[in-house]
Amino acid sequence: MGFFYRRFSDESLNKLYELLEDVTPLRDDCGLLCCAACCEGDGNDGMLLFPGEKEAFEGKEGYAVRYNTAYGSDVVICTGACERTERPLSCRIYPYFFYVKDDGKVTVAPDIRALGRCPLAEKGAGASPLFLRRMRMAALVLKRDPTQTAFLRQVGAALTDLGPLEELLTLK
User: Fold this and answer.
1) Among 21, 83, 105, 171, whose CB has the most other CB atoms within 10 angstroms?
2) The pTM is what?
3) How many folded domains does the chain comprise?
4) Could you report the per-residue pLDDT of 17-72, keeping only the tens digit for each?
5) How many CB atoms are located within 10 Å of the residue 34 CB?
6) What is the spatial distance between Cα 34 and Cα 120, in angstroms, rounded to a whole number?
7) Three-state secondary structure along 8-27?
8) 74: which DSSP letter?
């Protein structure tokens, strides 16, 4: 296990990083499918930071933290090359995201922002069973944390509202 996740004061974050430390959507480097499209972007793109992650990336070489008004949350922008053990949760779970249902259950589904960018999101299948199992375990951790659940509700609302969605999706 890496050391990066132990830097958080939030126990939920520590557990999430531990669960997702050594798994990826595919057994091989999934970036080979799309030329690592998820790691490309410009100063306007970024990966969402879950509550408690901002401090780990602020001021860290190779990363910039910015506030994204469409999400109402901070995002981290990187150079496109990083140590896998230091990736934020959004990078670890891409092309999936956690959504909160009306009954409070946290579910795992393809991230709508990955459509048109990631072959795994478009096919809706093909992810490693171990990865998906760990994602479901992570969903249980998130469900027990009111701060993380509130964040997921806020981001989920932004992702499913078609107005801001047009701002979030860019065709390249």
Assistant:
1) 21
2) 0.83
3) 1
4) 999 988 888 776 676 666 666 666 565 668 899 999 998 898 888 888 999 888 88
5) 16
6) 10
7) CCCHHHHHHHHHCCCCCCCC
8) E
